[in-house]
Automatic annotation (TrEMBL):
<dbReference type="GO" id="GO:0016758">
    <property type="term" value="F:hexosyltransferase activity"/>
</dbReference>
<dbReference type="Pfam" id="PF13439">
    <property type="entry name" value="Glyco_transf_4"/>
</dbReference>
<dbReference type="InterPro" id="IPR028098">
    <property type="entry name" value="Glyco_trans_4-like_N"/>
</dbReference>
<keyword id="KW-0328">Glycosyltransferase</keyword>
<protein>
    <recommendedName>
        <fullName>D-inositol 3-phosphate glycosyltransferase</fullName>
    </recommendedName>
</protein>
<dbReference type="GO" id="GO:1901137">
    <property type="term" value="P:carbohydrate derivative biosynthetic process"/>
</dbReference>
<dbReference type="InterPro" id="IPR001296">
    <property type="entry name" value="Glyco_trans_1"/>
</dbReference>
<dbReference type="Pfam" id="PF00534">
    <property type="entry name" value="Glycos_transf_1"/>
</dbReference>
<feature type="domain" description="Glycosyl transferase family 1">
    <location>
        <begin position="202"/>
        <end position="355"/>
    </location>
</feature>
<feature type="domain" description="Glycosyltransferase subfamily 4-like N-terminal">
    <location>
        <begin position="12"/>
        <end position="191"/>
    </location>
</feature>
<keyword id="KW-0808">Transferase</keyword>
<dbReference type="InterPro" id="IPR050194">
    <property type="entry name" value="Glycosyltransferase_grp1"/>
</dbReference>
Amino acid sequence: MLMGGDTFAPDVNGAASFQVRLASGIASRGHDVHIIAQAPKGVKQGTYREEHLGQMLTVHRLNSFRWPLHDWLRAVYPWRIHHNAARIIDEVRPDVSHMNSHMLIGRGITTESYKRGIRIIATNHFMPENLIEHTPFPKFTWPLITWLAWKDCTRLYRKAAALTTPTKRAAAYLEARTGLRNVHAISCGIRMSDYTPDFEAKPDNRIVFVGRITGEKMLPDLVEAVARIPRELDAQLDLVGEGDIKRQLEQQAQRLGIADRVHFPGRVSDEDLRTILTRATVFAMPSTAELQSIATMEAMASGLPVVAADAMALPHLVKDGENGYLFPPRDIDALADRLTRVLSMPQDEREVMQRASLRLLEPHDIDTTITIFERLYRGEEVTDPETDVPPLSAKVREQFRSLAKRAKSAITD
C-alpha cells in the first residue's frame, strides 16, 4: 500500500504521528507499506528504508523547502508533485493509496492513483482555520480563502472510495463543510501500554501542554490563566514543543511576573515526553480547533486529569467533572478556575479523575484503528467504532473514591 501527506516524521504533530502509528501497525501485520513524504533539511530526494516504531517502512523522500511563513513546515515543490507521485506509483504499483492531506503530496497521490484506477482512502486532519495565518493573504480575505480551501479539498475527497476523520464531531463538521456524506469517524488510536500513570501525590503542581507552540493553540490564554491561579498553589507550566510564538509567550510570562514558573522544554524525545506527562498533575488543552488531539490522548494514557476547551472534538475525550473539566473557549477566568479546582483537590479525588481518563481512553486502542483501516483498504464494509463511554454514576464514583482512600491508608499503615 502507499500512504502520504504533507507532514511525516521527523515532524512532531498529530497528522504525522497518526501516519507513523498507522503505517507501522499495518506493516507489523505483514503488509508492504510505502510512504511519500517531504525530505527533512539535509536529506536528499530518494527512497530510504526507515525504522519507525520498530517496523521497517519504505519512505520516498521528495525535495522540499521550509515554508517561509511557518516555523517548521517543509513543502515539496508543487510543480513536481504529479510527476513524482506518478513515478512512485508506477514503481510501487500499490493496491490502495491512503491520502492524509490534500494540499501537495496528498494531491499528487490522489490524482495519479485515481487516473490508474487504484482504490483511494482519504483521512482529513485539515482545517483551513489552522493554517491560514501562515499564508501571505491579508486578514480581510481569510473568509474567502477558507471557503475556497474547502471547495478545493472537496474536489479531491470526491475521488476517494472512503473518507475518514478521527471523531464524530469532526465527521459532522467535515460533512457540513464539504457536502459529502458517510464520513467515517475512526480514532487515530493510541497504545496505552506505552505510557505510565502515577497515582501518588505529586511533589509540585505541574500543568503541562504538549503541541505546537503556535497561535492556533490559544497558548496566551493558558499563560494568562496560570497567572490568575492562587499564588500559594505555586503552579508550574510546562509548554512542550516548538513554534513561532515561544518568544511572545516568554515576554508575556515576564510581564505577568511568572517567568520563573513557565518552562519551555522544546521538542523532546518520546521517552522524555512520557516522563514529563507522568510527573505532571494536570494536562491543559486550550485549543479551539482540535479534530481529535493525540496529545490529549497521550495525557489521558498517562493518567492525567484534563482541562480543555469545550470546542470541536475535545468533548469526545473530556467528560466534564469525570476525567477533568471543560471550559468555554477563550474564557480565561474559567480556564484558571478549572485548573485551580484540579490542583486544589485532595489526591484521592484527583485519582478518581486519573482513573477516569484511563477508562475513557480504552475504546481508542490503536489495534482497533489498524483493523478498521485494513478492512477499508480491502473494500470491506466497516462499522465505526463506538468511542463514547457511558458516564460513571455518582455511586460508582464514590466507590472509586473510597477505594483510593483505603489504598492510601494501607500504604501509610
